[in-house]
Amino acid sequence: MAKRKTVLKVSHLTKSYGDVVIVDNFNLTVSEGEAVALTGRNGAGKSTILRCLVGADRPTEGTIEVLGQKMSETNPEMRRAVATVIDDLDFFPDLSVVEHLDLLARAHGLDDADALVDEVLEEVQLVPQSGQLPGTLSSGQRRRLALATGFVRPRKLLILDEPEQRLDVEGVQWLGERLRQERAHGLAIVMASHEPSLVEAVGCRIVRVGAPQ
Amino acid sequence: MSDQLPNDEELDLESPDLDDEPSNAHIDLMPTHEVDEKQLLLLMKDWRRGRATRNLRQAISDGYVAVFTAAMITAMVVSAIVHAQQVAADCSTASCNSGRSLLPWAAVAGLLVLTLAAARMFGPVLASAAEGFWLMDAPLQRGKLLVRRLWMALGAALVSGLVLGALVAALTGSSGPAILAWSAATGLSAAGVTAFAAAEQGAERRWTVKLLQVVVSLAGVVVLVIVVSTAAGWVDIRVTDEFSIRLALILSGVGLVLGIVGAGVAIHRLNRIRRSRLTSGGSLVSGMQGAAFALDFGLVRDILVEREAMERGRVKPTRGRGIGLRALVWRDVQRLIRYPKPLFLLAVSVVVPYAVQALGLGPLNAPISALVLMAALIPFFSTLRVLSRTKGLARAFPYNTGEIRTAASVAPSVLTAIWAMAVIPAYLGVSTEEAGNSPVRAVQIALVTAIAGLLAAIRWVSAKSADYSKPMLATQMGAMPPGLLINLIRGFDIVALVTFPVIVGWSPWISLVIALIAFSILRSGGLDRESLAEMQEDQKRQMEEQKKKSSSTGGGDKVKITRGR
Known about the structure:
The complex is a heterodimer of chains A (213) and B (565). Chain A contains seven helices and nine strands, in the order βββαββαβαααβαβαβ. Chain A has 213 residues and is α/β, with parallel strands linked by helices. Chain A starts with 5 loop residues before the first strand and ends in a 5-residue tail after the last strand. Chain A has helices spanning 46-54, 76-81, 97-107, 114-123, 139-151, 169-184, 196-202, and strands spanning 6-17, 20-31, 35-39, 61-66, 69-70, 82-85, 157-161, 188-192, 205-208. In chain A, the strands form two sheets. In chain A, strands 6-7-8-3-9 form a five-stranded parallel sheet, with helices on both faces. In chain A, strands 2-1-4-5 form a four-stranded antiparallel sheet, with helices on one face. In chain A, helix 3 (97-107) crosses helix 4 and helix 6 packs parallel to helix 7. Chain A has one domain (6-208): P-loop containing nucleotide triphosphate hydrolases (Rossmann fold). With 565 residues, chain B is mainly α. Among the domains of chain B are: 89-293, no CATH class; 340-466 and 479-528, no CATH class. Chain B contains 23 helices and two strands. Chain B has a two-stranded antiparallel sheet with strand order 1-2. In chain B, a hairpin with a 2-residue loop joins strand 1 (473-475) and strand 2 (478-480). In chain B, helix 16 (365-377) packs across helix 20 (439-462). The A-B interface holds A 54-56, 58, 73-77, 79-80, 83-84, 86-96, 98-99, 102-104, 106-111, 114, 130-136, 149, 153 and B 302, 305-306, 309-310, 312-320, 322-325, 327-328, 331, 335, 338-339, 382-383, 386, 389-393, 395-401, 403, 534.
């Protein structure tokens, strides 16, 4: 069996705010087709790790490499490779649901993205809301739209922060199945989750994150 | 019934002894008295007073910087009025004088449009979320609670109208009686349209207020065009001071009648206003208050845009065009077709350089017109605004900050170029009887004005909010984040910087060089101290890593090369 390529390598990641150390010497390697679930109590540092992984926060110490390159949030190569759904995703108030997905697909170079956008829209059950503006969506529908943005574009690494949040039972089941398929197609996944059924469905390697010091 | 509230002992607010009374199931929940709305309001007033930690004198004493700033601004306004009166004395031709005396008419129209827009947005009668939750469901006469809110809305419209009307009339060099007349006209008509909007709110009708707003807007544009045409001498409309005052008095009368009738009808309909309609205005005000206290006017606008989008709710989706960055540009073009209203405002802003030139304020034309252009261009930067305020969505686009900012500025830049061409004749002096600039200089100044407005709009929409997580500055008004006060001059700074050489009569090329530097900084995301520190740190790390590599492998490489030979 061919050796799987390393997609993400985190070495000695430490993040502190003043004297408070949130993440201390965290190490992680994720290969193609591998899913990792960060679990742990509230405040353990899962979201902080993910924010560092996507470049939203800067580690106090340590390095993060994606596909062999040092992580930089503004590097277009990184932005092409890494799809993220964390808490800071915003939407254009004046573009409809389907227009968001169409714009993202086109920005990533997919000229004829209609079929893909329609498919993803149907998967996230937002077809009836396709013409709605984001401000009118419920919190669960906004979460579905956020997840959809990760699936209408090319990606090699998917980073999700508690993706099960605000999803109904059906939604969590769909997400588990979808992520399992993505994994089978070689996508590397890192997610923080409090939902054992989701972690199990995706077949994640579980990494327990410790409490802050 | 007495207005005095009973004290706590009389009300017996002591909680019951839980040991003796384990359950309240036995309490008779049938009301024994009718609710007295006046007593309820007094009770709320008493609570609010009881929670105050400082009195007015202490607040003013603590905020002396704010008081000092207010005094400075007042002094500047007075100085500007005195200067305007002197300039008005220089306005020697009859056409120039007529143009000036017409300006308060445009000001009235402008303020009425703003008043109607605010009335539609907020209510004008509104209630806070807490009042909506606790009081509006209670068995009481809602109208009795809301009537104070109605008077407050009318009072606010009246006072702002009085002040702004007086200010505009004074700044245009009007005589004392004319200032008083226009002040009354603006204040009373603003209160009148607010009362009309309140009456329509009770009838759940929005289209009438919108129609009135459109009519007044068109009237304002017509007046503005007349101002320019008159001042330029294209049409001969003689407006005497006496006629102007008479018109202002007629307007005052109409405003007063509308106010009285509208207020009467509004009071009659107050009970009918739905709770959701009342609290939506209240929550909008509280959200905007929060953003305004942080001096984050970008956020204030975001709240309004979000509200407008929610009212619209749904659009007919359109398929995008192009791929890569062109997709972003095409989306902006599609936005223009979907939301054409800002184009109307941009078109109106073209009149401003002509009007300013016609009124003999030529030297200040570039900064004044650039500021107006900045305001008119902001709505076209929707993409840039959203991709600047939070990083989440920007991260989803595979481009760096500079590429995104450039793409998001293409559509507004094209509009700016058209605007620049449209205002060249203003700088040539077609709207004034005095000699204008040479064709080359007119083109240069038009370009400088347009670029200043464009860059100021980019700066306004893309500047970062004050960061409350960073170390604060200690001031007499309390702790303040360092970027807070800079928020106040966001955009204005660029206009001042770029147009300064033109104001003082230097070569416009200097302005263009400054604009180029400003653009390169804005394009890269601004001069952010934190980002610069990060970049320095990055470079330092890279150098250290290279040093380590070269010290561990550098000798080996040489050996390899030697072996190869």
